[in-house]
Model the fold of this input.
Amino acid sequence: MTAPHLDIEAFAALCSQDLDLSHYPLASGLEKNVLLYEGDEVRAGLALASFNQAIRREFAHVLQHGSGVFVIQNAFADKSVIEHMNQVFEAIFAQETGKASGDHFAKAGANGRIWNALQKSALLNPEAFIDYYKNPLLLLASEAWLGPHYQLTTQVNVVRPGGQAQAPHRDYHLGFQEPSELARFPMHAHLMSAQLTLQGAVAHTDMPLESGPTLLLPFSQQYELGYFAWRDETFKQYFAEHAIQLPLKQGDALFFNPALFHAAGTNYTSDFHRSANLLQVSSAFGRPMEQLDRYAMTRAIYPALREQWASLNGLEREALLYNTCEGYSFPTNLDSDPPLYGLAPQTMQQLTLQALNEGLTVEAFDPQLQQHAQKRQA
Ligand SMILES: [Fe+2]
Done:
């Protein structure tokens, strides 16, 4: 397709909508067109199948047809879990000191960045990893948008005092392509791009307004030509005039449609380091942005997971397996990895669940993991 005509008035009309809170009865509030959910209420509701279904519908609806963004306040009730993970991040930063770590939309060096924080934290501190990623609310939000077998990746972003705002943008997939490349994808692929990932951010410190929490432009995900538009000066100007910010507390989690125009804000403080664990969750049907060695992650956390298995509830178990292991059978080598039952070969997730339920030692489990990896190779 050729580069289209961008219509700022159509964009402004979309972004001038107001979200109707009455359509989202499980939300606890609405601020600047961002739905707020209370973590304690959501955790309590998860035991009910009807609540589970209803809240997933609300999340999916607001991401697709609503303002494109919601916050779960107090998504991590136990702040020591976040603090423990912050120590892990510090250790990773210390290991990586001196390594240039560029950012897609900000000047290199202005921010602290840990790529593939998910794998690095699993390998460095399995206990901290388990305490963090057993959180069922991460699974709930991810599944609501992407369905089962999603693939979690995480990246840490620390914005230092004086750190400047990012340019407004959309994210992966098509947000990371140059305009000439964008035009090669048909419009239905532009719309599909936003269906393939979910963006999230867990606040690892409080994020008062002066520290620059993410700037968001509610409803902007609805503009179909948005992957072309975010580089346009008129649209940048509109963003600068209309984007909103919400202060977050440590442990709050923000989720948004990857097509929502957004940008990390300026940190105006002189001494406050704003820190977030960014979640980029991919559909089973898409390619994630980062390559993870999920076998190495599973092997690393298995001994601690086996020890804790009996004390974890069903939701925590599911969240951990989803957030760590590959849960989808494909791509594989169907000559050497044929289906055991049904039409799909056994997944890493099923294999790990079976080992944990049988209480296999890591010495017994390790060869199974290795064989699983090998038979899937071409
Ligand atoms: Fe972004």
